[in-house]
Amino acid sequence: MHFDENLIRNVVAQVLAEVGPMPSASNGKPAGGQHGIFYDAASAVTAARRAFEQLRERSLEDRKKIIDIIRRISIEQCEELGLMEMEETKVGRPEHKIEKLRTLGELSPGVEFLETKCFSGDHGLAIIERAPFGVIGAITPVTHSLPTITGNAVSMIAGGNTVVVNPHPSGKRVAAEGVRRFNEAIAAEMGIDNIICVIAEPTLESANELFAHRDVALICVTGGPAVGRAALNSGKRAIVAGPGNPPVVVDETADFDNAARCIILGASYDNNLLCIAEKEVFVVDSVFDKMMDAMRRAGAVQLNSEQIAKLTSKAIVKVGDDKHDAACKDFIGRDASVLAEAAGVSVPSGTELVFGETDEHHPFVSVEQMMPFLPFVRARDVDHAIAMAKKYEHGFRHTAMIHSRNVHNMTKMGREMDTTLYVKNGPSMASLGLGGEGYLSFSIAGPTGEGVTTPATFTRERRCSMIDELRVV
Protein backbone atom coordinates (compact mmCIF):
# COMPACT_ATOMS: atom_id res chain seq x y z
CA MET A 1 0.00 0.00 0.00
CA HIS A 2 1.36 3.38 -1.02
CA PHE A 3 -0.02 6.91 -0.75
CA ASP A 4 0.68 9.79 -3.07
CA GLU A 5 1.53 13.21 -1.64
CA ASN A 6 -1.66 14.84 -2.95
CA LEU A 7 -3.79 12.35 -1.01
CA ILE A 8 -1.83 13.03 2.17
CA ARG A 9 -2.14 16.80 1.77
CA ASN A 10 -5.89 16.62 1.08
CA VAL A 11 -6.60 14.41 4.10
CA VAL A 12 -4.41 16.49 6.39
CA ALA A 13 -5.94 19.75 5.16
CA GLN A 14 -9.36 18.38 6.03
CA VAL A 15 -8.19 17.30 9.48
CA LEU A 16 -6.52 20.63 10.22
CA ALA A 17 -9.61 22.52 9.08
CA GLU A 18 -11.67 20.52 11.55
CA VAL A 19 -9.11 20.93 14.33
CA GLY A 20 -8.51 24.64 13.78
CA PRO A 21 -5.74 26.64 15.43
CA MET A 22 -4.59 26.04 18.98
CA PRO A 23 -6.72 28.04 21.44
CA SER A 24 -5.41 31.43 22.57
CA ALA A 25 -6.33 33.48 25.61
CA SER A 26 -7.60 37.03 25.27
CA ASN A 27 -4.22 38.43 26.28
CA GLY A 28 -2.64 36.81 23.25
CA LYS A 29 -0.80 34.19 25.25
CA PRO A 30 -1.57 30.52 24.66
CA ALA A 31 -4.42 29.08 26.66
CA GLY A 32 -4.72 25.49 27.69
CA GLY A 33 -6.01 23.17 30.35
CA GLN A 34 -8.88 21.43 28.58
CA HIS A 35 -8.64 17.93 27.15
CA GLY A 36 -4.95 17.64 28.02
CA ILE A 37 -3.48 20.61 26.12
CA PHE A 38 -1.07 22.72 28.20
CA TYR A 39 1.66 25.22 27.50
CA ASP A 40 3.82 24.78 30.59
CA ALA A 41 4.91 21.74 32.56
CA ALA A 42 3.68 22.96 35.94
CA SER A 43 0.07 23.42 34.80
CA ALA A 44 0.12 20.07 33.02
CA VAL A 45 1.43 18.23 36.09
CA THR A 46 -1.14 19.91 38.34
CA ALA A 47 -3.96 18.82 36.04
CA ALA A 48 -2.56 15.29 35.69
CA ARG A 49 -2.27 15.03 39.48
CA ARG A 50 -5.92 16.09 39.83
CA ALA A 51 -6.90 13.48 37.25
CA PHE A 52 -4.87 10.85 39.12
CA GLU A 53 -6.74 11.60 42.35
CA GLN A 54 -9.98 10.93 40.47
CA LEU A 55 -8.66 7.83 38.70
CA ARG A 56 -7.46 6.20 41.92
CA GLU A 57 -11.06 6.21 43.20
CA ARG A 58 -12.27 4.32 40.15
CA SER A 59 -12.42 0.57 39.65
CA LEU A 60 -10.14 -1.62 37.57
CA GLU A 61 -13.07 -2.03 35.21
CA ASP A 62 -13.18 1.75 34.75
CA ARG A 63 -9.50 1.74 33.82
CA LYS A 64 -10.30 -0.86 31.19
CA LYS A 65 -13.12 1.31 29.82
CA ILE A 66 -10.75 4.29 29.57
CA ILE A 67 -8.20 2.16 27.75
CA ASP A 68 -10.89 0.85 25.41
CA ILE A 69 -11.69 4.46 24.44
CA ILE A 70 -8.04 5.05 23.52
CA ARG A 71 -7.95 1.79 21.57
CA ARG A 72 -11.13 2.68 19.68
CA ILE A 73 -9.87 6.11 18.61
CA SER A 74 -6.44 4.75 17.69
CA ILE A 75 -8.03 2.10 15.47
CA GLU A 76 -10.95 4.02 13.97
CA GLN A 77 -9.02 7.24 13.33
CA CYS A 78 -5.68 5.70 12.45
CA GLU A 79 -5.74 6.90 8.85
CA GLU A 80 -6.32 10.60 9.44
CA LEU A 81 -4.02 10.74 12.49
CA GLY A 82 -1.36 8.65 10.77
CA LEU A 83 -1.38 10.86 7.68
CA MET A 84 -1.31 13.94 9.91
CA GLU A 85 1.84 12.60 11.57
CA MET A 86 3.38 11.88 8.17
CA GLU A 87 2.69 15.39 6.95
CA GLU A 88 4.09 16.98 10.10
CA THR A 89 7.21 14.89 10.66
CA LYS A 90 8.08 14.21 6.99
CA VAL A 91 9.77 10.91 7.94
CA GLY A 92 8.73 7.32 7.33
CA ARG A 93 5.96 5.90 5.16
CA PRO A 94 2.28 6.88 5.41
CA GLU A 95 0.93 3.34 5.29
CA HIS A 96 3.12 2.42 8.25
CA LYS A 97 2.12 5.52 10.24
CA ILE A 98 -1.45 4.28 9.88
CA GLU A 99 -0.58 0.68 10.66
CA LYS A 100 1.35 1.59 13.82
CA LEU A 101 -1.62 3.38 15.34
CA ARG A 102 -4.01 0.59 14.42
CA THR A 103 -1.82 -2.21 15.76
CA LEU A 104 -1.02 -0.34 18.97
CA GLY A 105 -4.75 0.04 19.51
CA GLU A 106 -5.16 -3.68 19.02
CA LEU A 107 -2.08 -5.13 20.74
CA SER A 108 -0.91 -2.76 23.50
CA PRO A 109 -1.02 -4.64 26.84
CA GLY A 110 -3.78 -3.62 29.26
CA VAL A 111 -5.00 -4.41 32.77
CA GLU A 112 -4.69 -8.14 32.12
CA PHE A 113 -0.93 -7.74 32.64
CA LEU A 114 -1.41 -6.80 36.31
CA GLU A 115 -0.94 -9.88 38.48
CA THR A 116 -1.59 -10.39 42.18
CA LYS A 117 0.72 -12.77 44.04
CA CYS A 118 -0.24 -14.58 47.22
CA PHE A 119 1.87 -16.41 49.80
CA SER A 120 0.11 -18.69 52.28
CA GLY A 121 1.76 -20.49 55.20
CA ASP A 122 1.69 -21.29 58.91
CA HIS A 123 1.85 -17.61 59.81
CA GLY A 124 -1.02 -16.38 57.66
CA LEU A 125 -1.25 -14.68 54.27
CA ALA A 126 0.72 -12.12 52.29
CA ILE A 127 -0.78 -10.46 49.21
CA ILE A 128 1.45 -8.61 46.75
CA GLU A 129 -0.31 -6.22 44.37
CA ARG A 130 0.73 -3.69 41.73
CA ALA A 131 0.07 -0.05 42.66
CA PRO A 132 0.39 3.12 40.56
CA PHE A 133 3.21 5.62 40.95
CA GLY A 134 0.95 8.63 40.26
CA VAL A 135 1.92 11.16 37.60
CA ILE A 136 4.42 9.93 35.03
CA GLY A 137 6.53 12.34 32.96
CA ALA A 138 7.17 11.03 29.43
CA ILE A 139 9.42 12.06 26.54
CA THR A 140 8.47 10.79 23.09
CA PRO A 141 10.42 10.75 19.80
CA VAL A 142 9.70 12.29 16.40
CA THR A 143 10.01 8.85 14.79
CA HIS A 144 6.80 7.60 16.45
CA SER A 145 5.17 10.61 18.09
CA LEU A 146 1.52 9.68 18.58
CA PRO A 147 2.10 5.90 18.43
CA THR A 148 4.50 6.07 21.39
CA ILE A 149 2.04 8.23 23.32
CA THR A 150 -0.77 5.79 22.52
CA GLY A 151 1.09 2.67 23.61
CA ASN A 152 2.50 4.31 26.73
CA ALA A 153 -0.88 5.75 27.71
CA VAL A 154 -2.55 2.34 27.55
CA SER A 155 0.09 0.73 29.78
CA MET A 156 0.40 3.66 32.18
CA ILE A 157 -3.36 4.07 32.67
CA ALA A 158 -3.76 0.30 33.05
CA GLY A 159 -1.35 0.63 35.97
CA GLY A 160 -3.51 3.39 37.46
CA ASN A 161 -1.32 6.36 36.52
CA THR A 162 -1.79 9.58 34.61
CA VAL A 163 0.87 11.01 32.29
CA VAL A 164 2.34 14.30 31.09
CA VAL A 165 4.09 14.11 27.71
CA ASN A 166 6.84 16.40 26.44
CA PRO A 167 6.81 15.34 22.76
CA HIS A 168 9.53 15.92 20.20
CA PRO A 169 8.95 19.43 18.78
CA SER A 170 8.76 18.07 15.22
CA GLY A 171 5.78 15.89 16.17
CA LYS A 172 4.06 18.22 18.63
CA ARG A 173 0.91 18.98 16.63
CA VAL A 174 -0.16 15.40 16.01
CA ALA A 175 0.73 14.61 19.63
CA ALA A 176 -1.53 17.41 20.84
CA GLU A 177 -4.35 16.49 18.48
CA GLY A 178 -4.25 12.81 19.42
CA VAL A 179 -4.19 13.63 23.14
CA ARG A 180 -7.08 16.09 22.69
CA ARG A 181 -9.20 13.43 21.02
CA PHE A 182 -8.40 10.83 23.68
CA ASN A 183 -9.23 13.18 26.56
CA GLU A 184 -12.36 14.60 24.99
CA ALA A 185 -13.84 11.13 24.61
CA ILE A 186 -12.70 9.99 28.06
CA ALA A 187 -14.16 13.10 29.71
CA ALA A 188 -17.46 12.64 27.89
CA GLU A 189 -17.80 8.94 28.64
CA MET A 190 -16.02 8.55 31.98
CA GLY A 191 -16.11 12.02 33.55
CA ILE A 192 -12.34 12.49 34.00
CA ASP A 193 -10.37 15.00 31.95
CA ASN A 194 -6.60 15.41 31.53
CA ILE A 195 -5.66 11.78 32.17
CA ILE A 196 -3.11 12.28 29.39
CA CYS A 197 -1.57 15.75 29.22
CA VAL A 198 0.74 17.15 26.57
CA ILE A 199 2.95 20.21 26.50
CA ALA A 200 1.87 21.79 23.23
CA GLU A 201 5.05 23.84 22.76
CA PRO A 202 7.73 21.46 24.05
CA THR A 203 11.29 22.64 24.72
CA LEU A 204 14.36 21.40 26.56
CA GLU A 205 13.33 23.72 29.38
CA SER A 206 9.87 22.18 29.65
CA ALA A 207 11.44 18.71 29.67
CA ASN A 208 13.79 19.71 32.49
CA GLU A 209 10.89 21.27 34.40
CA LEU A 210 8.94 18.05 33.98
CA PHE A 211 11.86 15.96 35.22
CA ALA A 212 12.29 18.17 38.30
CA HIS A 213 8.64 18.61 39.29
CA ARG A 214 7.95 17.26 42.78
CA ASP A 215 4.63 15.69 41.71
CA VAL A 216 6.19 13.65 38.91
CA ALA A 217 6.85 10.28 40.49
CA LEU A 218 8.33 8.42 37.53
CA ILE A 219 9.99 9.32 34.23
CA CYS A 220 9.70 7.37 31.00
CA VAL A 221 11.97 8.37 28.12
CA THR A 222 11.89 7.02 24.58
CA GLY A 223 14.68 8.66 22.61
CA GLY A 224 18.40 9.14 22.14
CA PRO A 225 21.32 8.91 24.56
CA ALA A 226 21.28 12.56 25.71
CA VAL A 227 17.69 12.61 26.92
CA GLY A 228 18.19 9.17 28.46
CA ARG A 229 21.14 10.44 30.49
CA ALA A 230 19.13 13.47 31.59
CA ALA A 231 16.37 11.20 32.88
CA LEU A 232 18.81 8.97 34.74
CA ASN A 233 20.39 12.06 36.35
CA SER A 234 17.03 13.48 37.46
CA GLY A 235 17.08 11.81 40.85
CA LYS A 236 13.80 10.03 40.10
CA ARG A 237 13.01 6.49 39.07
CA ALA A 238 13.51 6.43 35.30
CA ILE A 239 12.51 3.95 32.60
CA VAL A 240 14.73 4.61 29.61
CA ALA A 241 14.21 3.25 26.11
CA GLY A 242 17.53 4.09 24.52
CA PRO A 243 19.12 3.85 21.08
CA GLY A 244 19.93 0.71 19.13
CA ASN A 245 21.99 -0.38 16.15
CA PRO A 246 20.59 -3.87 15.56
CA PRO A 247 22.84 -6.27 13.63
CA VAL A 248 21.87 -9.31 11.58
CA VAL A 249 24.00 -12.43 11.23
CA VAL A 250 23.47 -14.85 8.33
CA ASP A 251 25.33 -18.17 8.52
CA GLU A 252 25.88 -20.88 5.92
CA THR A 253 22.81 -22.90 7.03
CA ALA A 254 20.26 -20.12 6.54
CA ASP A 255 17.24 -20.18 4.26
CA PHE A 256 18.49 -17.29 2.13
CA ASP A 257 15.21 -16.44 0.43
CA ASN A 258 13.40 -16.31 3.78
CA ALA A 259 16.27 -14.28 5.25
CA ALA A 260 16.05 -11.78 2.38
CA ARG A 261 12.29 -11.36 2.74
CA CYS A 262 12.58 -10.88 6.49
CA ILE A 263 15.50 -8.44 6.27
CA ILE A 264 13.70 -6.31 3.67
CA LEU A 265 10.46 -6.34 5.66
CA GLY A 266 12.16 -5.28 8.88
CA ALA A 267 14.70 -2.82 7.48
CA SER A 268 12.23 -1.03 5.21
CA TYR A 269 9.35 -0.76 7.69
CA ASP A 270 8.56 2.94 8.10
CA ASN A 271 11.83 3.51 6.21
CA ASN A 272 13.96 2.02 9.00
CA LEU A 273 12.80 4.38 11.75
CA LEU A 274 12.14 1.60 14.26
CA CYS A 275 14.85 1.28 16.90
CA ILE A 276 14.60 -2.51 16.53
CA ALA A 277 15.04 -2.47 12.74
CA GLU A 278 17.85 -4.28 10.94
CA LYS A 279 20.70 -1.79 10.52
CA GLU A 280 23.69 -3.86 9.27
CA VAL A 281 24.15 -7.45 8.07
CA PHE A 282 27.13 -9.75 8.61
CA VAL A 283 27.18 -12.74 6.27
CA VAL A 284 29.52 -15.74 6.32
CA ASP A 285 31.81 -15.36 3.29
CA SER A 286 31.13 -18.80 1.82
CA VAL A 287 27.45 -17.88 1.26
CA PHE A 288 27.77 -14.12 0.85
CA ASP A 289 27.04 -14.11 -2.90
CA LYS A 290 24.01 -16.39 -2.41
CA MET A 291 22.63 -13.97 0.15
CA MET A 292 23.12 -11.00 -2.16
CA ASP A 293 21.36 -12.92 -4.96
CA ALA A 294 18.44 -13.61 -2.61
CA MET A 295 18.17 -9.91 -1.72
CA ARG A 296 17.89 -8.99 -5.39
CA ARG A 297 15.30 -11.72 -6.02
CA ALA A 298 13.24 -10.38 -3.12
CA GLY A 299 13.08 -6.92 -4.69
CA ALA A 300 15.85 -4.91 -3.01
CA VAL A 301 18.13 -2.89 -5.31
CA GLN A 302 21.89 -3.34 -4.96
CA LEU A 303 24.23 -0.35 -5.14
CA ASN A 304 27.84 -0.71 -6.27
CA SER A 305 30.81 0.72 -4.40
CA GLU A 306 30.82 4.03 -6.28
CA GLN A 307 27.12 4.53 -5.70
CA ILE A 308 27.48 3.70 -2.00
CA ALA A 309 30.32 6.22 -1.71
CA LYS A 310 28.16 8.89 -3.36
CA LEU A 311 25.24 8.16 -1.04
CA THR A 312 27.52 8.15 2.00
CA SER A 313 28.94 11.57 1.13
CA LYS A 314 25.42 13.01 1.37
CA ALA A 315 23.68 10.85 3.97
CA ILE A 316 26.42 10.71 6.61
CA VAL A 317 27.70 13.94 8.19
CA LYS A 318 30.25 14.93 10.83
CA VAL A 319 28.78 16.41 14.02
CA GLY A 320 29.89 17.47 17.48
CA ASP A 321 33.20 18.73 18.77
CA ASP A 322 34.75 15.35 18.04
CA LYS A 323 33.38 15.32 14.47
CA HIS A 324 31.83 11.87 14.78
CA ASP A 325 29.70 10.30 12.04
CA ALA A 326 25.93 10.75 12.18
CA ALA A 327 22.96 10.33 9.89
CA CYS A 328 22.03 13.44 7.92
CA LYS A 329 18.56 14.59 8.97
CA ASP A 330 17.62 15.23 5.34
CA PHE A 331 17.80 11.49 4.67
CA ILE A 332 16.45 9.99 7.92
CA GLY A 333 13.21 8.14 7.26
CA ARG A 334 13.15 9.00 3.56
CA ASP A 335 12.09 6.56 0.85
CA ALA A 336 14.57 4.20 -0.78
CA SER A 337 14.06 6.06 -4.06
CA VAL A 338 15.38 9.25 -2.42
CA LEU A 339 18.52 7.43 -1.25
CA ALA A 340 18.95 5.88 -4.68
CA GLU A 341 18.66 9.29 -6.34
CA ALA A 342 21.36 10.61 -4.00
CA ALA A 343 23.51 7.69 -5.11
CA GLY A 344 22.87 8.53 -8.77
CA VAL A 345 20.58 5.57 -9.40
CA SER A 346 17.02 5.32 -10.68
CA VAL A 347 15.06 2.48 -9.04
CA PRO A 348 11.71 0.90 -9.92
CA SER A 349 8.60 2.39 -8.36
CA GLY A 350 7.80 0.75 -5.04
CA THR A 351 11.40 -0.19 -4.23
CA GLU A 352 11.50 -0.52 -0.44
CA LEU A 353 15.20 -1.03 0.24
CA VAL A 354 18.59 -0.41 -1.30
CA PHE A 355 21.64 -2.36 -0.13
CA GLY A 356 25.25 -3.03 -0.94
CA GLU A 357 28.56 -4.48 0.21
CA THR A 358 30.82 -2.48 2.54
CA ASP A 359 33.62 -3.30 4.92
CA GLU A 360 33.00 -3.31 8.65
CA HIS A 361 34.53 0.15 9.14
CA HIS A 362 32.00 1.88 6.92
CA PRO A 363 29.92 4.56 8.72
CA PHE A 364 26.68 2.91 7.62
CA VAL A 365 27.73 -0.04 9.78
CA SER A 366 28.55 1.88 12.94
CA VAL A 367 25.86 4.60 12.76
CA GLU A 368 22.19 4.05 13.62
CA GLN A 369 21.27 5.53 10.26
CA MET A 370 17.45 5.13 10.28
CA MET A 371 17.15 5.04 6.51
CA PRO A 372 16.38 2.16 4.10
CA PHE A 373 19.92 1.38 3.02
CA LEU A 374 21.57 -1.75 4.44
CA PRO A 375 25.31 -2.46 4.42
CA PHE A 376 26.31 -6.13 4.00
CA VAL A 377 29.70 -7.17 5.41
CA ARG A 378 31.63 -10.38 4.72
CA ALA A 379 32.64 -12.51 7.71
CA ARG A 380 35.22 -15.32 7.73
CA ASP A 381 32.85 -17.61 9.64
CA VAL A 382 29.94 -17.39 12.04
CA ASP A 383 32.17 -16.60 15.02
CA HIS A 384 33.64 -13.64 13.16
CA ALA A 385 30.12 -12.50 12.17
CA ILE A 386 28.93 -12.68 15.77
CA ALA A 387 32.01 -10.81 16.99
CA MET A 388 31.39 -7.98 14.50
CA ALA A 389 27.68 -7.94 15.39
CA LYS A 390 28.56 -7.49 19.04
CA LYS A 391 31.10 -4.76 18.28
CA TYR A 392 28.80 -2.65 16.13
CA GLU A 393 25.75 -3.10 18.36
CA HIS A 394 27.84 -0.87 20.65
CA GLY A 395 26.79 -2.57 23.85
CA PHE A 396 23.30 -1.04 23.72
CA ARG A 397 21.90 -4.56 24.33
CA HIS A 398 18.85 -3.59 22.31
CA THR A 399 18.05 -5.96 19.42
CA ALA A 400 19.82 -8.58 17.29
CA MET A 401 18.76 -11.02 14.56
CA ILE A 402 20.17 -14.26 13.18
CA HIS A 403 19.19 -16.34 10.16
CA SER A 404 20.36 -19.90 10.70
CA ARG A 405 19.22 -23.50 10.99
CA ASN A 406 22.05 -24.28 13.42
CA VAL A 407 20.70 -24.23 16.97
CA HIS A 408 24.21 -24.05 18.41
CA ASN A 409 24.94 -20.88 16.40
CA MET A 410 21.64 -19.34 17.51
CA THR A 411 22.42 -20.11 21.14
CA LYS A 412 25.98 -18.85 20.91
CA MET A 413 24.93 -15.53 19.41
CA GLY A 414 22.10 -15.07 21.89
CA ARG A 415 24.45 -15.50 24.83
CA GLU A 416 27.13 -13.29 23.32
CA MET A 417 24.84 -10.42 22.32
CA ASP A 418 22.82 -10.32 25.56
CA THR A 419 20.21 -8.10 23.87
CA THR A 420 16.72 -7.25 25.10
CA LEU A 421 15.24 -8.59 21.86
CA TYR A 422 16.70 -11.51 19.92
CA VAL A 423 15.01 -12.79 16.75
CA LYS A 424 15.76 -16.04 14.95
CA ASN A 425 14.66 -16.51 11.32
CA GLY A 426 12.21 -13.62 11.25
CA PRO A 427 11.97 -9.86 10.77
CA SER A 428 12.72 -7.52 13.64
CA MET A 429 9.04 -6.62 14.19
CA ALA A 430 8.21 -10.24 15.02
CA SER A 431 9.83 -9.65 18.40
CA LEU A 432 6.97 -7.27 19.24
CA GLY A 433 4.18 -9.64 18.28
CA LEU A 434 3.95 -8.46 14.66
CA GLY A 435 4.32 -11.81 12.94
CA GLY A 436 5.62 -13.46 16.10
CA GLU A 437 4.27 -14.15 19.57
CA GLY A 438 4.10 -11.54 22.32
CA TYR A 439 2.73 -8.04 22.79
CA LEU A 440 3.43 -4.60 21.36
CA SER A 441 5.03 -1.56 22.94
CA PHE A 442 7.17 1.18 21.40
CA SER A 443 9.08 1.79 24.63
CA ILE A 444 11.80 -0.85 24.94
CA ALA A 445 13.71 -0.12 28.13
CA GLY A 446 17.15 -1.61 27.55
CA PRO A 447 19.38 0.76 29.56
CA THR A 448 17.28 0.39 32.72
CA GLY A 449 16.43 -3.27 32.18
CA GLU A 450 12.64 -3.38 32.09
CA GLY A 451 12.58 -4.59 28.48
CA VAL A 452 9.43 -4.21 26.39
CA THR A 453 7.24 -2.17 28.72
CA THR A 454 3.88 -3.35 30.09
CA PRO A 455 1.44 -1.97 32.68
CA ALA A 456 3.48 -3.76 35.36
CA THR A 457 6.49 -1.64 34.35
CA PHE A 458 4.65 1.48 35.50
CA THR A 459 3.62 0.15 38.89
CA ARG A 460 5.25 -0.38 42.25
CA GLU A 461 4.93 -3.41 44.48
CA ARG A 462 2.80 -3.27 47.64
CA ARG A 463 2.52 -6.09 50.17
CA CYS A 464 -0.34 -6.61 52.62
CA SER A 465 0.12 -9.24 55.36
CA MET A 466 -2.36 -10.98 57.64
CA ILE A 467 -0.49 -12.61 60.54
CA ASP A 468 -1.52 -16.03 61.84
CA GLU A 469 -5.04 -15.76 60.39
CA LEU A 470 -7.08 -16.46 57.23
CA ARG A 471 -5.11 -19.53 56.19
CA VAL A 472 -7.96 -22.02 56.06
CA VAL A 473 -6.13 -25.00 54.58
**Class derived from helix and strand content:** alpha/beta
Name the shape in a single word. globular
Describe the main β-sheet briefly.
Answer: 7 strands, parallel
Uncertain regions spanning at least 5 consecutive residues: 18-31
Number of helices: 16
Strand content: 15-25%
Distance between the termini: 60 Å
Helix content: 40-55%
Query: Which whole number gives the mean pLDDT?
Result: 92
The total beta strand count reads 20
Instruction: Please give the order of strands in the largest beta sheet.
Output: 11-14-15-10-9-16-17
Calculate Rg over CA atoms.
23 Å
Features:
alpha/beta, globular, seven-stranded parallel sheet, 473 residues
What does this structure look like?
The protein is globular, with a radius of gyration of 23 Å. The protein has a seven-stranded parallel sheet with strand order 11-14-15-10-9-16-17, sandwiched between helices. A six-stranded parallel sheet has the order 1-6-5-4-7-8, with helices on both faces. The longest helix has 19 residues, at 172-190. The chain has helices spanning 5-19, 41-55, 60-76, 78-89, 94-107, 145-158, 172-190, 204-212, 225-232, 256-268, 288-297, 305-315, 336-342, 363-366, 382-392, 407-417; strands spanning 37-38, 117-121, 124-132, 135-140, 162-167, 196-199, 216-222, 237-241, 247-250, 280-284, 301-302, 316-319, 324-327, 354-357, 373-379, 399-403, 421-424, 444-445, 451-452, 459-467. 40% of the residues lie in helices and 20% in strands. InterPro entries: Acetald_propionald_DH-rel, Ald_DH/histidinol_DH, Ald_DH_C, Ald_DH_N, Aldehyde_DH_dom.
